[in-house]
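Batch manifest line 330
LIGAND: protoporphyrin IX containing FE
JOB: complex structure
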Amino acid sequence: MGYPKLTALVAVLTLMLGSSQAQLNPFFYTFTCPQLPFVVLNVVSQALQTDDRAAAKLIRLHFHDCFVNGCDGSVLLEDVPGVIDSELNAPPNNGIQGLDIVDNIKAAVESACPGVVSCADILALSAQVSVVLSGGPAWVVPLGRKDSRRANRTAAANLPSPFETLDVLKAKFAALGLGSTDLVTLSGAHTFGRSRCLFFTGRFDNFNNTGLPDPTLDAAYREQLRQACTTPGTRVSFDPITPDTFDKNYYINLQNHKGLLQSDQELFSTPGADTTAIVNTFAASQLLFFIQFGNSMIKMGNLSPPPGIPSEVRLNCRKVNPPTVLHDVI
Ligand code: HEM
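JOB STATUS: finished
ARTIFACT:
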């Protein structure tokens, strides 16, 4: 590369580095923490060696972070009475796991580049690395988020529920600027990980007070699930065929009426819904699913906090920085 081109590249990178949360960019840590992607990759790979669900836990944390006041690491804040009303205490976060893995990533990142990388960015990068290590697509992760000094438990209580109708799910996504394609695509993350039985045993008998099982749940699969569900807290794979692989099987399962949650199956089985054709497209083409997954993850990852919330680069992902540590107020 000649000098003029190099100078132009450095100028562009410098401009990008100066950007705020509103303009995330993939080069945000190019000079301040060039080894960041490798550090995250290393710790997530290690976690996967002892925990098949590590990848699933991490991408779900990023989703629950971004849907509540934008991607600001607020989901990770623990309760401090009178100060932090933790989102972890909201019912939809009741079974959320993986904070220990985030602690390990943060410790490794802090040792490589102290005080530079936000927990919100660690979640965004971990989600991408998790998908790649599970056989799914890579995408370029825009970076430069800050960590909030506030949590919003009330908003967390409004995260999408597995018992909601497609109309309600669509409305919750639309409120954040995410359309039907994003809803179907991002739900494809249910290609790996587990759900506790309490979220779907209501489909087995007397579904919605009909006196009958959910007619959109395959009867033989229903009986297999009934056998598997020895307690409400038992965890069952979303995808019975390739439980820990990121692939398009989720959509094939929906076509076969083997969606685990009501909210999964509705994407395919709601009469007249625009989501059915999208499920069919992804069931037919893993390439199209993978390309769109990256696009929708970037869109979700761009959700930014409302203006005026004080933010910082947290040193411990579970706690706001002590007053002695400088933080931005935006
Ligand atoms: C469309 C609305 C959604 C609903 C109603 C929903 C609901 C759920 C429920 C009930 C569980 C099981 C939780 C438990 O047993 O504790 C779960 C797990 C999971 N969700 Fe979703 N989810 C939705 C969208 C998403 C999105 C957008 C993503 C990521 C992009 C995602 C990723 C996951 C993953 C990976 C797991 C497994 C976690 C594990 O094994 O620990 N979900 N989801």
